[in-house]
Amino acid sequence: MTTLPARAGRRCHYVVNALHSVVYFSPDNEREMSALGITDRSALYFAGRAAALGRVGAGTVTATFHSFSHELVARHVPHIWDVASPEDVLAARLRVADATLRRLLGEEALASAEMAEAAGLALRAAEACERPVRPLYAAHADLPVPHAPHLALWHAATLLREHRGDGHLIALAGSGLDPLEALVSHSATGRGMSTKWLLATRGWSEEELTAARLRLRERGLLDERDALTDAGAALREEIEEETDRLDAAPYEHLGAEGVGRLTELATAFATTLVENGGYPADLRR
With contact defined as beta carbons under 8 Å apart, do 104 and 18 qualify? Predict the structure, then answer.
């Protein structure tokens, strides 16, 4: 088994994931999905991310997405599949990725040797991802790999994101945190969404978020300022370490040199995405 530097896989994931997640904030997403008849922002997200699963119902989406209110999910699923088929959504999503990366990275970056190299490294890492107990990863792994390097990289980033995400839910299930508590404690780390974005996207009310914070205070995980206590920070790190363990295979397969190089390349691309407005400035807490 390859020995990697501590948290190397986690660091690689963060920057590679930025190449995938940028589509959710892209105006190209709204344009393409609106053309299919899907105009609500929550419906856009559910349709795009769940389409690989096929014509699933609200229960499957709530289970696999974890942090969304079931009432919000059920407002749109399965109705969205009567508006646009999963196949049409998947085709539109690939067009979104293409348009977004072209606009934010530029044609020169898309045609570069570095883009082709990053795509090859990310696809090689994804070879070691595992299907059992990984529903979102497994569904996306059944999709064909796009030919263009920037789309192949986006596809590989999607596989790596969903593989880690499925593992993260396994870790959360053993943590004692419910979905709301997981959201609130993640935001308190500084890496999660701001309260504004939680309220706008996850379907929970301010009262429900406040109740979750109170439960975390009672357990000694948040202080009176809603910052993580030492115990809260330790729990969040335990969750990430368990997620790292469950997500180790792709990065061990790639090896230390490959992980380092993919992290370097993806960091450069992700930095350009951020600098060119790919993500909202107020996304983080």
Answer: no
Contact 73, 61 (CB under 8 A): yes
CA atoms in the 13 A half-sphere facing the CB of 248: 14
Rg (CA), the chain: 19
CA dihedral 204, 210, 215, 218 (to 10 degrees): 170
Question: What is the rounded distance in angstroms from the CA atom of residue 194 to the CA atom of residue 285?
Answer: 4
On whether the CB atoms of residues 251 and 121 are closer than 8 A, the answer is no
CA dist., res. 101 & res. 20, Å (int): 10
Q: Which tens digit of pLDDT belongs to each residue from 246-276?
A: 999 999 999 999 999 999 999 999 999 999 9
Q: Is the peptide bond before 179 cis (omega within 30 degrees of 0)?
A: no
* Distance (Å, whole) CA 146 – CA 169: 28
For 86-144, write each residue's pLDDT tens digit.
999 999 999 999 999 999 999 999 999 999 999 999 999 999 999 999 999 999 999 99
